Amino acid sequence: MAVYLSPVGGVAAQFFTNTGVVLAGGKIYTYAAGTTTPLTTYTTSAGNVAQTNPIILNSAGRVSGSGEIWIQFASYKFVLKDSNDVLIATYDNIRAVGGIETQTENFTGTGSQVNFTLSAAPFNENSMLVYINGVYQQRDTYSVSSTTLTFSQAPPITSTIEVLYT
Fold first, then answer.
1. What does the pLDDT read at residue 101?
2. What is the pLDDT of residue 153?
3. CATH class of the 1-99 domain in this structure
């Protein structure tokens, strides 16, 4: 599995409380962006060893073990808390460093459906290409909000809808 360096905690990052004290025993919870659904992070670039969730910081306020956080090609939410689970910060809609990977999704038109659910939120609306039966769709024919792709008019019945995005 391809994994990418996390911009939150990445390599050798040190965390502190809001008053500047080293965050010994602090916790980093990782979720799918905008949710409280846990999302796995990894200890190495091989993506074969999962971090604990929460990730427990060592006495120096750093990620224990490898000192690295690697993430999938997905949008994450990171919640940083102290050792007593007191919230310090929340970072939402975080993507991987170097995580420029194209997602491809395929749907079939029903003739009445206008909303389609993507498996991940696009980086931004300008990073999308949408085709219906192989014909590129102009931006004014659809919109996207988080993981919902909405067409201004329902694609024809049995039409092939292909969506490419980063």
1. 61
2. 96
3. mainly beta
